Amino acid sequence: MIAKLRRFIQSHTQAISPEDKAHQLKLAAASMLLEVVFADETLAPEETALLPKLLTETLSMSEQDAKALIDEAKHVQGNATSLFEFTNAINTEFSLEQKQQLLLAMWQLAYADGQLSHYEDQIIRRTADLLYLKHSELIQMRNQAIAASHVKAAK
After folding, report:
1. pTM of the entire predicted model
2. Helix 18-37 crosses helix 63-79 at what angle (to 10 degrees)?
3. What is the DSSP annotation of the chain?
4. 97 with 58: CB under 8 angstroms?
5. 153 compared with 76, residue with greater pLDDT
6. How many C-beta atoms lie closer than 10 Å to residue 68's C-beta?
C-alpha cells in the first residue's frame, strides 16, 4: 500500500517517458473522480455507469482503457493520503480548460444519482481550490452539470 503511493510520488519527481507521464496524469484524474464517487460512501448504479463515459470524454480514451484505469485508480486512490497528491500533477500539466473539464466531470458524477451530498460538494470545492480555479469557474461547471442532469431527467 505505501509502496504504491511511494511509486506514484516518485514517478512525478523522476524523469519518466512521455507515455508514462500521460498515464500518471490520467490516473490522477481518474482518482479525483473516484474521490467524488466514494465521498458519500454509496456507489450508485448511475455513478458506476457514468464514470467510464466521463473518462472517455474527458481524457480521450477508449472505454476499455477507461475501465482498466478505473481499476488501477481504485488501488491508488485508496492509498492516497490527500487530494494534493493528485492535484499537484494535474496543476503542472493540465491546461485551464482541462482542469475545468475535470471539475465538470466531478460535478456530473456528484449529481448522477439525483442528489448532491455534503461530502461530494466539499471534495469538489477543495479540488477546485487546489487546482487554482476561480469560484466563478466552480459555479459555472456546477451549473452546467445541473443543467445536463435536468435534460437527462426530462428524457
Report:
1. 0.83
2. 70
3. -HHHHHHHHHHHHS---HHHHHHHHHHHHHHHHHHHHTTTS---HHHHHHHHHHHHHHHT--HHHHHHHHHHHHHHHHH-S-THHHHHHHHHH--HHHHHHHHHHHHHHHHTTS---HHHHHHHHHHHHHTT--HHHHHHHHHHHHHHHHHHHH-
4. no
5. 76
6. 13
